[in-house]
Amino acid sequence: MSDITPPVSTTTAPDPLAPARLGPVTLRNRVIKSATFEGVTRNALVTDKLIDFHVAVGRGGVGMTTVAYLAVAPEGRTERDQIYWRPEALPGLLRLTEAVHATGAKAAAQIGHAGPVANSRSNGLPSIAPSARPNPLALGFDRAATEDDIARVIAAHGDAARLAKDVGFDAVEIHLGHNYLASSFLSPNINRRKDSWGGSLSNRAEFARRIVAEVGEAAGGEIAIIAKMNMADGVPGGLWLDESLQFARMLESDGHLDAIELTGGSSLLDPMYLFRGDVPTQAMADTQKGFVKLGMKLFGGLVFKKYPYAPLYFRDYARQFRETLSMPLVLLGGVTDYDGMTTAMNDGFEFVAMARALLREPDLINRIQKDLTTTSLCIHCNLCAASIFTGTRCPLVADAKA
Length: 402
Fold this sequence. Notes:
This protein is α/β, with parallel strands linked by helices. It has 14 helices and 13 strands.
């Protein structure tokens, strides 16, 4: 038997509330306000309410806040008032980043194309998907993306990254999840193409990989690049861990990303898989009109499945990625307190992302800094999800108003 004692590891998990590097950017802590559509961008432009929304969480202590969702093309909006990249939007976006920076936080721009999640009826433009399919929200059909569409959307992501850099964003988050266009190409359920963009995982992943490469070239190492990708779509026949782990390895080997934010669910087919907790079906139906409103009231219980809430509810899936990858990862889902943050750090995740808890209490991070035992007031009722088209907010806050 050897008398040599193995060395004791002195590696400790990082403090989630201490400064950290994300690619070329230093954040004051490892907490990111994840993207939640703010619902206050009338005429697809920045408003004072949008700036106030992000300034509140900036003042509240987050390391970085993510502006959602900035479409790379006009038909890539989920509804007409969503911002899309164009000259008229740039002065407002510059004003927004300057206001966020004044709080000490960094600002990220979530960029992407909604694809089959887009509402063509609202946008007045045809929606596209990997394959032609019915679009119940628009009461119409998505047409299959052509080769020209694919090339145009890839280039538009690069243009968006360049513009984001010009107006002062510190990072871009590429939306590769929730069955938006890139995610729908990855999904065997939605992508029924027979050409080089469909079939094998390698083919289905090519669109997303080219988008990421285009953004990487446009960013030029000057701003951080995050990809938000699905671990699982949560629907039969959709993307699951066996393929999403392979896809993540592809992204890591391509070398364009500074981090991956791990998410799940389908805004198209199973929206509540992402949120977990209560399902306010009637409140969500009340935000719609006509046949869509009636359909949601009658059949919403079938469309919006209920998933029980648990702290760190994506942790078990996400740990598979931590075991597989060496690049920085962002843990999302049920992060609401310091214990959750430190659990994520001990698991090897470099950052955590929060959304609903910060809608309830924008100053939650400052409060945790002062008292590490602070717990969130968020009860996961998901009434905030019903407010997204009238100004995203927590209705339980006394002064919450559209």
